[in-house]
Design brief:
alpha+beta; Nuclear Transport Factor 2, Chain: A; 3 domains; eight-stranded mixed sheet; four-stranded antiparallel sheet; 11 helices
Length: about 400
């Protein structure tokens, strides 16, 4: 999903796929031949009426010519102004109802999508041809599907034999993904990219999405793209359309037709999952992680680390360092864990955690790093390590 796949390296992917023609404005009509003939015929009538007075004839003709010139100037001015105002119009899109059904291209995907996600499903009612065909961005589960708090859809210029697929980067035209949202995630500019052409797009239900163009800086293996993002029902949603700036209409069309899909199955699973997780994946993850710390289940805590954190220590080194730390700082069993603040940093957040122990004492743990990572089911979050965390744990190992 976003933490794994946003801004994918896809130098092979096509970036020049146009997103449709724009309609141009219509200018005021020029005088027809019929009108010109009529205007010309007025001159003899005026001259004939004033044959007895040559001066009057000349004056009448001059006035007519001046008036014709003024009318011509006004017509040209009106034409120029109209053309200038409509030089770069947005493509007119049909108004989509919030109750509209998703595009028929998703019909085969919906049963499987409903079976694997507890998230609110958002899909476009009109899928632009430029995006190709959709598939669930994953391998097909070999066992009974697990329920995740996110989903991902990939659009590719190819046909699929299954509703689950992982197409090659060169065939990908875009993605649509949801994930648990952390503070600031929608506004973060990914490292190595610059943001431009920011605008707001209203979804059919009134939800406001942010659309922006992201261009890689100093990267040779990343593609430019349009990213649309919005928040709905506590989850974040990200649309990515790969290509240059001409792909903006494709991104707009998807966002402007994005609708919530009725999902009784997902709604039931969501309710069950929210009851278990107290409606907050991050809070539940922290409580589960620190209960494992309290139980000294170092294997479980190691499985909750990010890949980067696991690269710093083997599981054996991690268990040794944690055992030393626990023996040096004994604590009563933990009875509750609560996040009490923090700051977002990209897909990560630095949070403070208030731990309450069995004897009633409390301890505030500051600067805990958590990272959005959809591989880690069922929370979509993992525990990161700061430089000071790594230095502290290495010190424990070196002193043992």
């Amino acid at each position: 999903m976003r933490s794994q796949t946003a801004l994918v390296s896809c130098s092979e992917a096509s970036e020049d796929k146009p997103s449709g023609d724009k309609k141009s404005g219509q200018s005021e009509p020029k005088p027809t031949e019929e009108t010109r003939v009529e205007n010309t015929s007025r001159e003899p009538e005026t001259i004939e009426e004033s044959t007895s007075d040559e001066a009057s004839k000349t004056t009448s003709k001059d006035e007519f010519e001046d008036t014709s010139k003024e009318e011509s100037v006004e017509e040209e001015s009106t034409e120029e102004d109209t053309t200038e105002d409509t030089a770069e119009p947005q493509k007119a899109l049909e108004v989509i109802s919030a109750d509209a059904a998703p595009d028929a291209a998703f019909d085969d995907l919906l049963p499987d999508l409903r079976a694997i996600t507890a998230d609110t499903i958002m899909l476009p009612a009109e899928l632009p041809e430029e995006l190709g065909n959709p598939a669930i961005w994953s391998e097909r589960p070999t066992e009974e599907p697990k329920i995740y708090p996110e989903y991902g859809i990939v659009f590719a210029d190819m046909t699929f034999d299954d509703t689950f697929a992982e197409p090659p980067r060169a065939a990908m035209r875009g993605t649509l993904a949801s994930a648990p949202i952390l503070a600031g995630m929608l506004d973060n500019v990914p490292e190595g990219f610059e943001e431009s052409d920011v605008e707001e797009i209203s979804l059919p239900d009134g939800t406001v999405a942010k659309l922006r163009y992201l261009m890689p800086i100093g990267q040779t293996n990343a593609a430019s793209l349009w990213e649309g993002s919005f928040e709905r029902d506590g989850a974040g949603y990200w649309l990515e359309v790969y290509g240059d700036k001409s792909a903006v209409e494709t991104a707009r069309q998807v966002l402007m037709s994005m609708v919530k899909i009725p999902n009784d199955v997902s709604a039931e699973k969501t309710e069950e999952k929210q009851t278990e997780e107290e409606e907050d994946p991050a809070a539940t993850f922290l409580e589960d992680y620190y209960r494992a710390v309290s139980d000294e289940d170092w294997s479980k805590t190691y499985s909750y680390l990010t890949t980067a954190a696991q690269d710093e220590f083997t599981e054996e080194e991690w268990a040794t360092a944690q055992s030393i730390r626990a023996s040096q700082n004994p604590r009563p069993p933990i009875v509750s864990v609560e996040g009490v603040g923090g700051n977002a940093a990209g897909d990560a957040a630095i949070v403070d955690v208030l731990v309450t122990y069995e004897d009633g004492t409390e301890e505030k743990l500051s600067g805990i790093t958590i990272v959005a990572d959809t591989v880690n089911e069922p929370y979509g979050i993992k525990r990161g390590l700061s430089e000071s965390d790594v230095e502290y744990l290495r010190g424990l190992l070196e002193g043992s």
